Amino acid sequence: AQSVTQLGSHVSVSEGALVLLRCNYSSSVPPYLFWYVQYPNQGLQLLLKYTSAATLVKGINGFEAEFKKSETSFHLTKPSAHMSDAAEYFCAVSRKAAGNKLTFGGGTRVLVKP
Amino acid sequence: GAVVSQHPSRVICKSGTSVKIECRSLDFQATTMFWYRQFPKQSLMLMATSNEGSKATYEQGVEKDKFLINHASLTLSTLTVTSAHPEDSSFYICSASSPENTEAFFGQGTRLTVV
C-alpha cells in the first residue's frame, strides 16, 4: 500500500519569500511522485514529477522538488513566492504497474501575503 | 501534455434524479480512466478505476450501483450518479492514462450540486 503525508494543511508566506511544502511518502516499491496545484473550482495542474530519473526535478512556474529516498521525502520549493502562487497543492504517489493510479496527500493551502 | 475534457463543468440536479458526467481523452487513447471525488477543502479520493471494455474496479466503500461507470471506448468514460441525494454533492474529477505515459492527465472537474 502507498500513502502520502503533507505536513501542514496551511502555509502562509510573504511575497518574495521562500515557499517550502513538505511531502513524505510510503511505498513498498520505487514510487513515481507528483506535485499538483489546484485553483478554486478547477482541476489539477501538474507542477512536476519524479519518475526515477534525476532526483532534483524542475517544474513549471519556478517550482522544484528533490526526491530523497533515505528520508522518503519529496518536498516542493520555490525561491520567491508570487501572489499567483496562492492555491492548494497536492503531493501524490503512484506505481507505474498500477496504471498511474494516484494516492494523494491531504493537500496544503498556500496563502501569499503582500 | 495530453488533453482530457470533462463535461459538464457544473450541474445542478434535483434529489432522486440521475446525472451523467463525461470524461474524454482528446488526443490519445486512454486505456485506463480514474474517477475521483473531492469534498470541500479536502483531498481527492479515488472512487474507481475503469479499463476500456471491462467492468470498473471500485474502491472500498464506494457503491457501484450508485456510481455507474462505463468505459466503452478508448476515448470516453462516463460516471452516472443515480438517484442523487444532497450528500452526493461534491467535485468529481476524472483522469486518463495509457501504458506509454508516466502520468495520468486530469479533466477540469465537475461541480455537482443536488438540491
Structure description:
The complex is a heterodimer of chains A (114) and B (115). By secondary structure, chain A is mainly β. Chain A has strands at 3-7, 10-14, 19-26, 32-38, 44-50, 56-58, 64-68, 73-78, 87-94, 103-104, 108-113. Chain A is 0% helix and 54% strand. In chain A, the strands form 2 sheets. In chain A, strands 2, 4, 5, 9, 10 and 11 form a 6-stranded mixed sheet that branches. Chain B has strands at 4-7, 10-13, 19-25, 32-38, 44-51, 57-58, 67-73, 76-81, 90-97, 105-106, 110-114. Chain B is globular and about 40 Å long. Classes of the chains: A mainly beta (114), B mainly beta (115). Chain A binds chain B through residues 32, 34, 36, 41-46, 49, 51, 90, 94, 96, 99-107, 109, and chain B through 1, 6, 31-32, 34, 41-46, 49, 51, 91, 93, 95, 97, 99, 101-104, 106-109, 111.
Task: Put the structure in a nutshell.
The complex is a heterodimer of chains A (114) and B (115). With 114 residues, chain A is an all-beta fold.
Which features does this protein show?
A: 114 residues; mainly beta; 0% helix; globular; B: mainly beta; seven-stranded mixed sheet; four-stranded antiparallel sheet
Distance between the termini of chain B: 37 Å
Uncertain segments of chain B are: none
Q: Please, what is the average pLDDT of chain B?
A: 93
- What is the overall number of helices of chain A? 0
Radius of gyration of chain B: 13 Å
Report the mean per-residue pLDDT of chain A as an integer. Answer: 92
User: How do the helices and strands follow one another from N- to C-terminus of chain B?
Assistant: EEEEEEEEEEE
Estimate the global geometry of chain B from the Cα principal axes: globular
- Compressed to H and E, one letter per element, the order of chain A equals EEEEEEEEEEE
Helix-residue proportion of chain A: under 10%
Number of E-state strands of chain A: 11
Q: Which strand-content bin applies to the residues of chain A?
A: over 45%
How many strands, which pairing sense, and closed or not: the largest β-sheet of chain A?
A: 6 strands, mixed
Question: Regarding quaternary structure, how should these chains be classified?
Answer: heterodimer
Measured between the Cα atoms of the first and last residue of chain A, the distance is 41 Å
Inertia-based shape of chain A: globular
Major sheet size, sense and barrel closure of chain B: 7 strands, mixed
Q: Which structural class should the secondary elements of chain A be placed in?
A: mainly beta
SS-derived structural category of chain B: mainly beta
Most extensive chain-chain interface: A-B, 24 and 27 residues
Q: Share of helix among residues of chain B?
A: under 10%
